[in-house]
């Protein structure tokens, strides 16, 4: 299988904004696409109106995209399985797939997060649950609605199998969506996960009414924290300066469409995390990831003060303005 033919059969597991966007993108390339969602009633609504009004409003889902709530049918109809569920639901989804016949399938994770129970990345979690399967990761600065509108976007395909990374690159690449390869799958996944925590911090600064200076500081020092963690865990530091790292971080910290920046903004305004999340259909991955990264930092004795500050605001109900003052008042040091 080259994954470059117009008849590649792809099942997208997860009908959120990003999963739906990728279904539209691949259908536009002529792939046979199935989009799976967990809720039959909502799938039926999308089937009738051909729009994901909740997660991707205004974008038409092509008629030849099969919409289903039958996971077995989605897995059976695929050569490539794209995992696009939120990170906190991935384990449960994988355990359902494990009961099915998934032999020979290629798995592509577009999930950005860390499993809080095991501190595994998503590709590691796939291996833990499904055994030795072919796994690649697609990540980068990819706001879903922009990709769906065919606004020029770049991303990274990563796998320990270089040939697989190239095949995934070819599968997803199109005139408005350019995909590069990077062999550092650990670094790519860490970037995609930890940047959401930094975006929460930048959103908090926006909510507090601070300016561009503050956000630039948060982004830059946040990138230092991301790289520090990556180096300790064995990732390539260069990955953090690329699309999966700095690119995705900048997009998530500055885009008005960023869910994590939005949650941070509301926290900066003084709202409680449970109240913010109660008003959202989409998942802000950084909220859960902050807990996992904070655990990592403590276990590995890594200095990650911005991550610690975000954790304190979310999980210990600390005052955001006082937390920022604490960061600014830390002992002086070289950059």
Q: On the 0-100 scale, what is the average pLDDT?
A: 95
pLDDT < 50 stretches: none
Biggest pleated sheet: 8 strands, mixed
Note the gap between the termini.
49 Å
Strand content: 5-15%
Tally of strands:
10
The secondary structure category is alpha/beta
Helix content percent band? 40-55%
Count of helix runs: 15
Give the overall form. Answer: globular
Multimeric organization:
single chain
Question: Which characteristics define this entry?
Answer:
335 residues; alpha/beta; 8-stranded mixed sheet; two-stranded antiparallel ribbon; 15 helices; 52% helix
Describe what is shown at a glance.
By secondary structure, the protein is α/β, with parallel strands linked by helices.
Verbal overview:
The chain is α/β, with parallel strands linked by helices. It is 52% helix and 13% strand. The protein has 15 helices and 10 strands. It has helices at 17-28, 40-49, 71-76, 87-98, 122-130, 144-148, 162-172, 185-207, 212-233, 243-254, 259-268, 273-278, 285-300, 305-315, 320-328; strands at 9-13, 32-36, 51-52, 56-60, 66-68, 80-83, 106-109, 134-139, 153-158, 177-181. An 8-stranded mixed beta sheet has the order 5-2-1-6-7-8-9-10, with helices on both faces. Strands 3-4 form a two-stranded antiparallel ribbon. Helix 8 packs parallel to helix 10 (243-254) and helix 13 packs across helix 14 (305-315). The longest helix is centred in the middle third of the chain and has 23 residues, at 185-207. The chain is globular. The mean pLDDT is 95.
List the helices and strands and how they pair.
Blueprint: E1 9-13, H1 17-28, E2 32-36, H2 40-49, E3 51-52, E4 56-60, E5 66-68, H3 71-76, E6 80-83, H4 87-98, E7 106-109, H5 122-130, E8 134-139, H6 144-148, E9 153-158, H7 162-172, E10 177-181, H8 185-207, H9 212-233, H10 243-254, H11 259-268, H12 273-278, H13 285-300, H14 305-315, H15 320-328
Helix pairs in contact: 4-5, 8-9, 8-10, 8-11, 8-13, 8-14, 9-10, 13-14, 14-15
């Amino acid at each position: 299988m080259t994954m470059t033919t117009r008849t590649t059969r792809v099942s997208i597991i997860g009908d959120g904004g990003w999963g739906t966007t990728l279904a539209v993108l691949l259908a536009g390339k002529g792939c046979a696409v199935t989009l799976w969602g967990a809720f039959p009633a909502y799938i039926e609504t999308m089937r009738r109106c051909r729009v994901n009004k909740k997660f991707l409003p205004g974008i038409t889902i092509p008629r030849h995209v099969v919409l289903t709530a039958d996971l077995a049918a989605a897995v059976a109809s695929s050569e490539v399985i794209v995992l696009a569920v939120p990170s906190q639901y991935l384990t449960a989804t994988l355990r359902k797939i494990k009961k099915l016949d998934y032999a020979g399938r290629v798995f592509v994770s577009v999930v950005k997060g860390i499993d809080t129970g095991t501190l595994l990345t998503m590709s590691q979690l796939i291996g833990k649950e499904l055994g030795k399967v072919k796994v690649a990761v697609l990540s980068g600065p990819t706001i879903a609605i922009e990709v769906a509108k065919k606004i020029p976007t770049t991303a990274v395909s990563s796998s320990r199998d270089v040939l697989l990374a190239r095949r995934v690159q070819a599968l997803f690449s199109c005139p408005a969506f350019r995909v590069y390869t990077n062999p550092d799958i650990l670094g790519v996944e860490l970037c995609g996960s930890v940047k959401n925590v930094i975006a929460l911090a930048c959103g908090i600064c926006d909510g507090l009414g601070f300016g561009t200076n503050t956000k630039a500081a948060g982004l830059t020092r946040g990138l230092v924290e991301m790289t520090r963690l990556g180096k300790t865990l064995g990732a390539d530091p260069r990955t953090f300066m690329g699309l999966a790292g700095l690119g995705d971080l900048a997009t998530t910290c500055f885009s008005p469409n960023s869910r994590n920046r939005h949650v941070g903004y509301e926290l900066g305004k003084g709202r409680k995390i449970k109240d913010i999340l109660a008003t959202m259909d989409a998942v802000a991955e950084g909220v859960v990831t902050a807990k996992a990264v904070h655990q990592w930092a403590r276990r590995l004795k890594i200095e990650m003060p911005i991550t610690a500050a975000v954790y304190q605001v979310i999980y210990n109900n600390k005052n955001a303005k006082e937390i920022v003052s604490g960061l600014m008042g830390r002992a002086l040091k070289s950059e």
